[in-house]
Structure formats: structure tokens, C-alpha cells
Design brief:
about 550 residues, alpha/beta, ABC transporter transmembrane region fold, Rossmann fold, 4-stranded antiparallel sheet, elongated, ABC_transporter-like_ATP-bd, ATP binding, membrane, nucleotide-binding, ATP hydrolysis activity
Length: about 550
């Protein structure tokens, strides 16, 4: 692989996250300044200490008080400055990470669910692992690299004035540090990308395993499940070990460069006829202390390659584009049934395609406002796709879809929840209280409103189902409830928004006859346009009419 292209692409991927640093420009500039002062203080301390020792050894006397006071002051100042630099750099880093996570969640809100089927495990890995890995970049890289560059620019001219030969040695060492690091960049990038890919696969495997715990136990596949996760974890360790080995080789080469520079500086000092012998140790100490942060900065550059994949995935998540709910507010009027003859839902030549699959052609249909219509047909013809199109999650690839007389692009994103609500067969309930789940769409709903809507769906708070009332914890996915109870809670959550159009997608598919009848009784009482997608004849019989889609 071309190392120039690798280095360029790595910095381009990392630079794509630079906008998140803009609000931190002032603190970041201060961090660079403090880091520079810390490095200069360390150089000054090294020179002062070397001068004190050299005077004692060569001239057999105590050094002048100014050197002692300088050494004491710098020894006290250096740890304070270093602590302050670490404090503000990490403060900046974690503020940036918080901003990145919020931008990432905004991207998820726009682009999830996607027709490409983004895996929740991969998204979780991006939000947590990838963002966390970038802490190193923001806390230990940006300011430190800038400070090291400034240090070289400021120190080399001074070194040239004191000892031109020593300045040449230091300059050559800086170049050599970069040259020995250059060959490791492309391999580090490949290993970093491989490691992140395998971590994502591990995250996906764990999420799938947790989601399918019941099936794993029922089919007695515990050992196979554990073996699969163990193998995925072991696969992550392979590139990780190679990265550590590569970094160790790079560190050894850089240490060799520093040792070589030390020998060269000793030779320069020993052969100099113009330099006072007392200043030879000072020159050696100062030059090596100058090289230390430069070597560390070059080492940091070599570790940036594995972070490229994380930066790229975070940037991709932040840049996710909405396939649905628009942000353009209509020029006039509120969202509602417009002058289209009281038509709530209409489709004309609507087409939609999933990647790698044939185009779905939605049959033309027209549903009047307030009408309850059933939709039946073979699996795979696009009934659930229509449900998602109606909620604004996705956009049709062709044709015209209108909801309450409006095109999808005419409906602002914050109006969709009150316009269309979808209750699916496996409508998700969050791990939290009953009230938290009901307030998902109406955060300011009162307890009285929650109790009223629960009563409406046949789940009174004091009916014995909810032991702690509205504070009852439902468990992950509503595990504490039966299938019928979960369906009713999801229906109650939807009804709380008083949508103009209510869509049920196989909501009763997994319910027994009694639970099904209870849910459909509630649906029949809804004063809104209702579309019920179902294969069940009993469910469809409760509708005003049924539209049968051809296979």
C-alpha cells in the first residue's frame, strides 16, 4: 500500500472530525501554549541541573545561586504546568466526545432505520467504542503535536546560535525519527481497520446473542453461543497483538535514533574548541530533552493509524442522511387533512427498492379520512414497507404518496408523530417504567392522561397488571408483560398522540383470540383513519373494508 496515500487518508479521516473542535478553539490554543511552556520548563530544568553538576565536577565548587534558584523554581513549576495541561486537555477532549456523541445520535435519528439494515450492534460500537477511542486523539494528540512543532521551530535557531554542529545533530535526529516511523504507517492503518472491523463483528454477535437469549436456551445452544462469542473475541486479539508488536518495533527504532543522537552530541561537545567544558553537559541535556517531546510526538503519529477506522465510522454516522421525515415546514396551514376531498392516505405508482432486491410496487389506493381499512396479501409484497413510508421513515423511490393531502416533503419532522403512528407486531418497549414508555411521544403528559389512555386500551393502572402503577418497570423489551399486554401498551402510547392516521402492522399476529379481540375493540373505537395490515381473517373482519394486494 502507498504510505503517502495512507498517511493522507488517515489525516483526512481524522480531519473530518475537526468541526467538533471549533467551539474549543480557545481552550485548545491555551493547551498548546501550556504544553509548550511545560516542554521549555523541562529543557530549562535539564540545563540548570546539568550546569550545577558540571560546575561541581569540573570546577570543584558550588554553582552560583541563580542556577540553584532556577532549578528549584523550574522543578516546582514543571509538575504544576504538566498537571494543568493534562487537566485542560482532557476537559477539552471529553467535551468534544460529548459533542460527537450528540452529533452521532442526531445522525442515527436521521438515518435509522435505514433500508440497508444497519446493525444495532455496529451502531452501538460506533457510539461507544469508536468515540471513546478518539479520546486519545483529542486529549493526547492535537495540542501535543502542535506544541512539539512549535518547540522545534523555536529551539533549533537558539541551538544554532549556541552550537551550530549540535543544532545540525538535533535537526538530523528529528528527520531520522520521522524516517524510521514512516514505513510502519501503512501496516498500522491496515491492522487498525482490521481490528475495528472485528470489534464491530464482536459487538454484533453479542447484541444478537442477547436478543436471542430465549431461543439459545430453548434449543440448548449455550455452548455454541459461548464458543461463537469467544472466537469473535479471539479474532479481535490477533490484530491487536500485531499492532502492539509493530508499536514496539517503532519504539525501539526511535530509541536507537535518540541513542545515536546522544553519541553524536557527545562527540560534538568533546571536539568543540569554542565551547566551555561546563556547557558541554548542558548542551547534551538540553538537546536530548528537546528530542524527547519530538520523539513522543512522532510516536503518537504512528499510533494514529488504528484510529482512522474509528474516525471514519464516527464521521459516517454523523453524516447519515435522512431517508424520511423532512424538515421543511409547509408554507401555509397546519398539518392535517387538507383539501383533497377528505382523503387521508393515497398512493399512486409508489415504488420502493431495498438494496439487492426487486423493486416493490405499491398498489394504488385511496383511504378516506376516518375510514378503517384492512390490507391483506402475501408476504413480501410491500405491506410493511407501506407502513414505514406512511410514518415518514423512508421516502418512495417513485410515484406519489400523500398523507392527509400532503406530500412527505411537505411535512416537518416534528409533525410526523402526531400525523401517523405505527404499532408493529413487535412494537418495542424500552427498559424503564410504564410511564417512561407512554411518555416517549408526549413527554409532558400528565399521570391522569396516562391512566386514561391505559383505561381506554383495557389496562387500568389499578387492574392488577402493574404492581407499582405507572412506576412499574417493564424490563427489556417489555419482558415483564405478556404479548397482549405489550401490544396494548404500544397501542396506548400511539393513541396518546391522537394521530390522524393509525397503522397496525400484524399487531395481533402473536395474540390469542381473547387478546386479539380486546385490541381490535380498542381499534374499532378509535376516531381516526386506521390501516390494519394482517393475515388474520378475524382481524380483517373488524374493518370497514379490506384491500387485498396481489402476489
Amino acid at each position: 500500500m502507498n504510505t503517502t496515500a495512507t498517511r493522507t487518508s488517515t489525516f483526512r479521516d481524522l480531519a473530518s472530525l475537526a468541526p467538533s473542535l471549533r467551539p474549543e478553539a480557545a481552550p485548545l490554543a491555551w493547551t498548546v501554549f501550556v504544553d509548550l511552556i511545560a516542554n521549555l520548563a523541562l529543557i530549562g530544568l535539564s540545563v540548570a541541573t546539568a550546569h550545577i553538576v558540571a560546575v561541581a565536577v569540573i570546577e570543584h565548587r558550588a554553582d552560583d545561586p541563580v542556577w540553584w534558584w532556577a532549578a528549584i523554581a523550574l522543578a516546582l513549576l514543571r509538575p504544576i504546568i504538566s498537571w494543568h495541561e493534562m487537566d485542560i486537555s482532557h476537559s477539552v477532549a471529553y467535551r468534544v466526545l460529548a459533542r460527537l456523541r450528540m452529533a452521532l445520535f442526531d445522525g442515527f435519528a436521521r438515518g435509522v432505520p435505514a433500508r440497508t439494515g444497519l446493525h444495532s450492534g455496529r451502531l452501538a460500537a460506533t457510539a461507544m467504542t469508536d468515540v471513546e477511542k478518539l479520546e486519545f486523539f483529542y486529549a493526547h494528540t492535537v495540542a501535543q503535536l502542535a506544541a512539539a512543532a512549535l518547540l522545534v521551530v523555536l529551539a533549533l535557531p537558539v541551538a544554532w546560535l549556541v552550537a551550530p554542529a549540535a543544532a545540525c545533530v538535533v535537526a538530523a535526529a528529528v528527520v531520522a525519527l520521522w524516517l524510521v516511523t514512516w514505513p510502519t504507517l501503512s501496516r498500522g492503518e491496515r491492522l487498525g481497520a482490521e481490528q475495528q472491523s472485528r470489534r464491530s463483528a464482536l459487538s454484533e454477535a453479542v447484541v444478537d446473542l442477547l436478543a436471542g437469549t430465549r431461543e439459545v436456551l430453548v434449543f440448548d445452544r449455550k455452548e455454541q453461543a459461548v464458543a461463537g462469542v469467544t472466537a469473535a473475541a479471539a479474532a479481535v486479539d490477533v490484530p491487536a497483538r500485531k499492532i502492539r508488536t509493530l508499536e514496539a518495533w517503532g519504539a525501539s527504532l526511535r530509541e536507537a535514533v535518540v541513542v545515536g543522537a546522544s553519541v553524536a552530541l557527545v562527540v560534538v561537545g568533546a571536539t568543540s574548541v569554542t565551547l566551555d567544558p561546563v556547557w558541554v553537559p548542558c548542551l547534551l541535556a538540553g538537546s536530548l530533552t528537546l528530542l524527547a517531546p519530538v520523539a513522543e510526538a512522532v510516536a503518537v503519529i504512528s499510533t494514529l493509524q488504528p484510529h482512522r477506522a474509528s474516525a471514519r465510522r464516527v464521521a459516517q454516522g454523523v453524516a447519515l442522511v435522512s431517508e424520511g421525515a423532512g424538515s421543511v415546514v409547509p408554507a401555509a396551514g397546519e398539518v392535517g387533512v387538507s383539501g383533497d376531498g377528505g382523503v387521508a392516505v393515497s398512493t399512486s405508482g409508489v415504488q420502493f427498492a431495498y438494496p439487492g432486491r426487486a423493486v416493490i410496487e405499491v398498489p394504488d389506493m385511496c383511504v378516506a379520512a376516518g375510514e378503517h381499512v384492512g390490507i391483506a396479501g402475501p408476504s413480501g409484497v410491500g405491506k410493511s414497507t407501506l407502513a414505514r413510508l406512511l410514518t415518514g421513515l423512508w421516502r418512495p423511490d417513485g410515484g406519489v404518496l400523500r398523507v392527509c393531502g400532503l406530500l412527505p416533503d411537505e411535512v416537518p419532522a416534528d409533525r410526523w408523530p402526531g400525523l401517523v403512528q405505527l404499532v408493529e407486531q413487535d412494537a418495542p418497549l424500552l427498559h424503564g417504567s410504564l410511564a417512561d414508555n407512554l411518555r416517549l411521544g408526549v413527554p409532558d403528559a400528565s399521570d391522569a392522561q396516562l391512566c386514561e389512555v391505559l383505561e381506554r386500551v383495557g389496562l387500568p393502572v389499578d387492574g392488577g397488571v402493574f404492581s407499582a402503577g405507572l412506576d412499574t418497570q417493564l424490563g427489556e423489551g417489555g419482558a415483564a408483560l405478556s404479548g397482549g399486554e405489550r401490544a396494548r401498551v404500544a397501542l396506548a402510547r400511539a393513541l396518546l398522540l391522537s394521530p390522524a392516521v393509525l397503522v397496525l402492522d400484524e399487531t395481533t399476529a402473536a395474540l390469542d383470540a381473547v387478546a386479539e379481540a380486546g385490541v381490535m375493540d380498542v381499534v374499532a373505537s378509535v376516531d381516526a383513519t386506521v390501516l390494519v395490515i394482517s393475515h388474520r381473517q378475524r382481524t380483517l373482519e373488524r374493518m370497514d373494508r379490506v384491500v387485498v394486494w396481489p402476489g
